[in-house]
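Need tokens for this chain, all 292 residues.
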Amino acid sequence: MPCLVDLHCHSTISDGLLTPVELVEHAALQGVRVLALTDHDDVSGLAEARNVAERHGIAFIDGVEISVTWRRRTLHIVGLKIDPEYPPLAEGLQAIREGRHTRAQGMAAALDAIGITGSLEGAYRHAKQGIISRAHFARYLIEKGHAKDMRSVFKKYLVKGKPGYVEHEWASLSQAVNWIIESGGVAVIAHPGRYDLGRNNMLLLMEEFRSLGGTAIEVVTGSHSVEQYQEFAHIARLFGLAASAGSDYHGPAHSYMDMGRLPELPAGCIPVWQHWPEMDNAADTHIRMEAH
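Here are the structure tokens for all 292 residues:
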């Protein structure tokens, strides 16, 4: 039976292909009952998404995905049930967005050096109304025929050690977790299976995250394998962390998994949404809509 909770997805406010309205409409078509919009380092799509979600009877969770530097590695921390207007969070996200522009200029210069020109303008064209990210450079590179798809373009140009990758210092782990918690939210380590940390560093990350007040990790997410569901369910239990689930949906043909297709959490996991009133409200709304 699929899990109809999706606590990780992206709109055109960051690097998704659908506007906040289109994204929620898609979630509704896929049967999602509890939804968090978690754009990268930006919360400006939340109000619009919430309005549409309410019309569809979807319980909406205010979220964000914050870019973090930890031991010279880039990680992502999802904040759920945040207050998007909390000043330190808003100011921190603004600083990260400004840093994204600086990184984009460096990436364009690096690509210029290997003969790929026009990437900054091309990436911003794909960014439309939102922040600039590696995904927008990737779409430009695919458009120009330098790679066939997102997976291959990242592998060839945009990951560490490749010509379009630029080191950048994001927020610290403690800053991100503090902004989320102090705004009233829950801090979640996003898609831990995507980080090339090794066993020891992964355990150190979990220990530090927990000590800072982090309380959950994504166990079921679009980029995790079935084996990783079990691996991170075990880590969640080991560190007393709740388990989250999210598709990390970015749009058609740009996602590991569609919305509404996530499996249920493995047995023994404590859902991050346990005791959330939104869960009861979503169930009641679903029953009423089914009755009609």
